[in-house]
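Example 3.2
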Amino acid sequence: MYEFKDPGGRGRAAIIAVLAWLAADLVYTIGAATTIAALNGAASGTGPAAETADMITGVGGVALLVATLSSIIFVARWIMRVNANAHSMSDSMTVTPGWNVGWFFIPVALLWKPFQGLRETWQASVSPHDPTSVAVPPLMRWWWGLWLVSNALGNVSTRLSFAKADAASLIASSWIDIATLAIDIPLAIVLIRMISQFDDLQARGPDYAETFA
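Structure, written as tokens:
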């Protein structure tokens, strides 16, 4: 039912998409910092003009939206490929390729089910006949923890920005956006490293997993 295919092509596309997302995130965060400076300096007449802040934030917001959608598509395609490969190697898999992506969009279940799918994928790729004996790499736990924190901060920022239109709410939301970038940078680095390790493992075979122990 499942055919093994080299995940390298989808992996490289996913890495490029993640880098583009991080670049857009940086531009958006610069806009957030400019917004803080503009609002704080409005009363005294110092700091950048509100129009400048709005322009940077607007451009960054559009770029971030496009980059986020692109990264979701390309990372999802990569997840489906490595999951399908694990299914072709082992009958221990319980999460299908489609649901490994689908669980990201299901409330509550998104807190653990997507991680379960990739955990099973890694374990089945390392030891197809005895996957439960394989430890989960710390890198995967870091990725999942950072992803959860980044999404939580993003939700708080969005709620603040729409809750009120006053300067205090906008400043608070902008500070959260800046804090989110501090999470998103290591998140992107860890995700890119994880994609590379998955691709190398599946391309070279289970024995190669010993280099990650």
